[in-house]
From TrEMBL:
SUPFAM superfamilies: Actin-like ATPase domain. This is Type IV pilus biogenesis protein PilM.
Amino acid sequence: MGFMSNGRVNIVITNRKLRYTFHKNNKLDGLEEHGELKLPPSVLEDGKIIDKAVFSEQIRQLVQEHKWKRKKLLFAVPDDTVVIRQLDVPAALTREEARGYIETQLGSSIYLPFANPAIAIDFLEKQGDMQQVLLFAYPKEKITDFMEVFEEQGLRPIVADLTSLSVYRYYMSTRQEEKPHHVLLIHWNEDALVLTAFKENKPIFTRHMKLEQTNEEVQWDRTIDEYLIEINRIIDFYRYSITKGAAQIELLLVSGDFAGLPQLKGRLMEETVYKVEDFQKDELPAKYADVLGLATKNEG
């Protein structure tokens, strides 16, 4: 079992559950084990650790049971407070210089709904002497709290990611056909619905909605009715506000652990003109798309 020392742990966190895989590499065929853990109530709220002692004990048990001590860890945090924004910076700047430039503008010309953000950037296209940049911002203390627990329990966290990016990465790595240019990811978990629009494989807009738990099947249709309205609003917003009428959503990609996802897919196929795809026919249950996508992320 010496190869196990080269593997890594991948964990996706929601406010109610924790999904994990252990892979011997960052390829999907490197999967060694997978599972899901239901978190006790009120351990996490709004993507933040509320009861650190209980969460830490949950992680301790996982590490001990699976012999993960000193293993590398990639983890994805809830997308509830992420900000994704397009900005322009001088085209002459390198990636690191652009990131530093944006940091100097925080609180003056660039405003975020929280202080002390962890930020990352991605380059889009150049327009003359300006470079379009995609800014990702997340409250740094939330990430730090998770990292502290993981480190205390013997894991070696090396990368934090967003769940929506992980799901889309899994889609990109498992579908061989030509990919559409404009995709709306409908990531519906028990506790939240996150709508993320991807343009040319880049996430350029996200909308998070906190949900009340709806485990009873009789409530699913009513819940789906309510949020189909919001999904259609985002589709229109993308077409008329983001792309200024130049493009529209081509694919609705459905994922998450909400038990009513098959009903949602059926409604989308009946009531919209867009192609609809999900992960129901994949080898593992569809809810594992997020952590499998995380498992394919490079560590650099």
